[in-house]
Amino acid sequence: MSGLASARSGSEQASGIDARSLYQRILGADFERLPASLRALHARDGVRRYAGEAEASRGAGWLSRLCGGIAGLPPAHAGAIEVEIDAGRHGETWIRRFGHGAMRSRLRERDGLIHERLGPMAFAFALELVDDGVIWRLRSVRALGVALPLSWFDGMRAHEFERDGRYRFDVRAALPGIGLLVHYRGWLTIGD
């Protein structure tokens, strides 16, 4: 199961108001191909909270710490995590709580891509379906509105997947010359 989600047809977005979830709008009929835990997480609207476990590691260099701090990346952590998602027709706000630290981002759809704002950074991702879930493929990056070379972000990876019936995530960001910014991975209990 593979393929990049592309821009939806004009008729799907013509009204400007779409009751479907962010992932449903981007993936269209392919949304049904996602594993059950991913469909459950990404089909809901309103405010939802999920609990689980995660490990987060941060780069040790001062430039890595500076970049991570500016972007609001999570602190090093091993243990409980809580994720709050406020989803509506205009996008989603995610707050990921790693112990005493939190990472907040805003996601919305434009031109068939997920646009994520994280502090002064803005990212655009295509969603690629894979056997166990979805990989986020970086398409553009901006800092304070200025476009940055995509090649600087070759070390960015994000994968949402299901294993043993459980929703899992694995996200890594590194920059050339700076090294690791953050690597966090874990699982969430989605429930019904």
From TrEMBL:
It comes from the Bacteria. Residues 34-188 form the DUF4166 domain. It holds the Pfam family DUF4166. This is DUF4166 domain-containing protein.
